[in-house]
Write a structure and sequence with these properties.
The protein is of the alpha+beta class. It has four domains: 2-127, Immunoglobulins (Immunoglobulin-like), CATH 2.60.40; 132-242, Immunoglobulin-like (Sandwich); 245-302; 314-344. It is 32% helix and 36% strand. The chain has four helices and 19 strands. The termini are far apart. Keywords: Cell membrane, Disulfide bond, Glycoprotein, Immunity, Membrane, Signal, Transmembrane, Transmembrane helix. One of its GO terms (biological process) is immune system process.
């Protein structure tokens, strides 16, 4: 029991000693492809030694540990470009062919079983602004039609306008996805880049985001943002839209056809009714004209007969005296009536 308490106190003391070291972190700038070496003092009586790496936005990662003069990379960190050495009161780290993903803070630490001390910290900044001035971002697809439950893959590619060179691919922590929903002025969801690939043949850096659409809130435009050389490059966006069901389209087409047929029938029936009404009116007018003509003809015949009869019915006493005159009057009257009949 007393031994456990002593171990806890020693561990607490060791942590406090490590935190109380007020060293400033030095900054070193390099271009991609350069070599860089970091060195720090380590007393000879320090049995244990370690190197740590802290990338922006990530937890501290143990790169190598050593006992006395031998240092070995950890299982979680294995990169042949990194070399660790420990010699006379000194421990060093050399990075060959620096990449953008090497941009981080490096710490050296050494000590005994009871006391570990962080000696120095080094900030490595990889500058490649001249090359990145000709870099641009492309997103595919521009738009995708999906339904809830579907999974789609969005791609963000970093290209260089110079065909002879390829862009230095940033680490995944420098690439993010965000979604802008309809009617929203701020990004609603933030994603870290996943499934990045370095396509040397096409001279591009490709980042993928696999997105499963769960509900309507997942629809919108997804943008890819790449932080590189103090700038943020933004892609054109990939829009996820609702996929129209084929049955809905078919039903919509059938409904449209039905509406067209109904409207055509309405116009046809209305036109027939108007035509029938016009023919009825014309027929009635024609019948009235015929009736009027017949009536006038009958009246005319009746008048002619009456005139002719009056002309023929003379008194017997006056026949001899007015025979010649009567004959002339009669024929005159008949002739006049004949002319009227001819005119009719």
């Amino acid at each position: 029991m007393h031994g456990l308490v002593a171990l806890i106190l020693l561990s607490t003391f060791c942590i406090i000693e490590t935190a109380e070291v007020p060293h400033l972190i030095s900054t070193t700038e390099r271009k991609p492809g350069d070599n860089v070496t970091f060195s720090c003092q380590s007393p000879a009586d320090h049995r244990f030694s370690q190197w740590y790496k802290q990338s922006p936005g990530k937890m501290i990662q143990t790169m190598a540990t050593g006992v006395y003069g031998k240092m070995t990379e950890t299982k979680t960190f294995n990169d042949s470009r990194f070399q660790f050495r420990r010699g006379n009161n000194e421990m060093s780290l050399t990075i060959h062919s620096v990449k953008k993903e090497d941009e981080a803070v490096y710490f050296c630490q050494s000590g005994t079983e009871f006391l570990l001390t962080v000696h120095d910290g080094f900030l490595l900044v990889v500058k490649d602004c001249d090359q990145h001035s000709s870099v641009y971002v492309e997103q595919t697809p521009d738009a995708a039609a999906v339904q809830p439950g579907d999974t789609t893959s969005l791609q963000c590619a970093l290209f260089s306008t110079n065909s002879e060179t390829r862009p230095q691919c940033p680490g995944e922590n420098f690439v993010h996805w965000f979604k802008s929903g309809s009617g929203s002025s701020y990004p609603s969801i933030i994603y870290a880049a996943r499934n990045s690939t370095d396509d040397a043949a096409k001279r591009s850096c490709v980042y993928h985001l696999s997105k499963t659409v769960e509900n309507s809130s997942d629809f919108g435009t997804y943008y890819c943002a790449v932080a590189i050389c103090g700038e943020i490059l933004l892609g054109g966006g990939s829009k996820l839209e609702t996929k129209q069901d084929s049955s809905v389209l078919v039903l919509g087409g059938l409904l449209g056809c039905c509406v067209i047929v109904i409207i055509s029938l309405i116009f046809y029936i209305t036109g027939r009714r108007v035509s029938d009404s016009s023919e009825g009116i014309r027929g009635s007018h024609h019948a009235e004209d015929e009736t009027s003509t017949t009536y006038q003809t009958k009246n005319l015949d009746k008048k002619e007969n009456m005139t002719y009869a009056e002309a023929l019915n003379f008194p017997a006493a006056n026949v001899r005296n007015c025979k010649k005159v009567t004959t002339e009057c009669t024929y005159s009257s008949v002739k006049a009536n004949s002319k009227k009949q001819q005119q009719l």
